[in-house]
Amino acid sequence: MKYDVVVVGGGPAGLVAAFTTKRFFGDKKILVIKKTEKEMVPCGIPYIFHTLGSVENDYMGIEDRFKSAGIDLLIDEVVDGNPDEKKLLAKSGKEISYDKLIIATGSSPNTPKIPGVDLKDVFTVPKEADYLKLLHEKVKGAKDVVIIGGGFIGVEVADEIKKSGKNVTLVEIMDSLLPVSFDPDFGELARKELESDNVKVLTGRKVTEILGTEKVEGVKLDSGETIPADVVVLATGYRPNSELAKKLGLKVTELGFIETDEYMRTSKPDIFAAGDCVQHKDFLTGKPSRLMLASAAVFDARIAASNLYGLKVIRTNKGSLNAYSTVIGSKAFGSVGITERIAKEEGFEVVVGKAEAPDRHPGKFEDTSKLLVKLIFSEDSKILLGAQVCGGKSVGEIVNLISLGIQKGITANDLFTMQIGTHPLLTSAPTVYPLAKAAEMVL
């Protein structure tokens, strides 16, 4: 099998890499190789437990789109290859030749080294439909569920499983929830939302053992407390799938990610990489980042695919911004850039502005929410370093707007004097617009 471009991986990065390649290089013969028949929408996985109701409702549904676009699809696993000969070997024994290769192999869940982690009904949260169907069924039949890990996946899974009527306990080793993306004041808001829905939240606690004989029966904490559990869900982060890259002799970083340049080119000619398997660097600190987001993955894929045959699209941003948003209980949470805590740890001298206002005006409309904005600026230059937002559904797009601002070096004065459009049914009042008011606090 001979192709001009081969994409290994069928998640968001692989999907976008293939379609972007077709857009820029329509005459090229393209093949996507992926391991599973059905791909999950990664960010939708926590919602299979209640809001979506099933694993099937989270399918990405991309397989027919490849065919209609003239992109070939092979359900198989690449197990080896020879970059000098530009050949790949699939698990089925098929040999595939390529001119350009894009590796988009994604990530897999971390499994912590806790005694009892191998007991029956202890699960991680992978992007694999068959595994998730089993987890879904086990949760349906459970009474007590313990979630280990208070990052985005942990809080979203806890929130959703609680909605299905289970007793849910969330255990986080750090002192607050969402500790990578939010300062403790926003972590406390997330805690209150979960606790208002009767999720038991334990922060600053460590699970020392998962209890049971063959099947899980509970977890033991470092405090000596034991918590009953029919199911335990490990939401303890992800690791890059870089095994294929290593077999191909590509450079891999100390953190296990594939090393690329600004245009997603690897250490071997004509091999690119994109998505969770790639080493990113922080936009503000320049340090290696463990960033794993679908939004970042598709950005990588667009850059890689558009530049396969020469640098068509020039990359202007200098690193990756950690732009996140989620919904916990009745509130949306969003963050971008670095937190106040991390900024201080990195040696930045910072000033912080906070403002709160209804996201409708007047605030008597039925769907009104309080919109809380926290902005972290460099003390001298007043350049925006990070932001955290809590409120209604507008939070997601507000964070995206702020993300662009940080990329462009926006300052407190820029936000204070920004030209805005407002409407009673859509935004906060112009008189108390939170972004402008939070910026005003530091001027």
From TrEMBL:
Give the cofactors, semicolon-separated: FAD
The record, for Pfam families, names: Pyr_redox_2, Pyr_redox_dim
Q: Which UniProt keywords apply?
A: FAD, Flavoprotein
**Residue ranges constituting the FAD/NAD(P)-binding domain according to the UniProt record:** 3-299
Domain named Pyridine nucleotide-disulphide oxidoreductase dimerisation: residues:
328-429
SUPFAM superfamilies (alphabetical): FAD/NAD(P)-binding domain (SSF51905), FAD/NAD-linked reductases, dimerisation (C-terminal) domain (SSF55424)
Q: Does the keyword Flavoprotein apply?
A: yes
- Matching Gene3D superfamilies: FAD/NAD(P)-binding domain (3.50.50.60)
For molecular function, the Gene Ontology terms on record are: oxidoreductase activity
Annotated family:
Belongs to the class-III pyridine nucleotide-disulfide oxidoreductase family.
**Xref: PANTHER family:** NITRITE REDUCTASE [NAD(P)H] (PTHR43429:SF3), PYRIDINE NUCLEOTIDE-DISULFIDE OXIDOREDUCTASE DOMAIN-CONTAINING (PTHR43429)
Name of protein:
FAD-dependent pyridine nucleotide-disulphide oxidoreductase
Q: Which organism is it from?
A: Thermotoga petrophila (strain ATCC BAA-489 / DSM 13996 / JCM 10882 / RKU-10) (Thermotoga naphthophila)
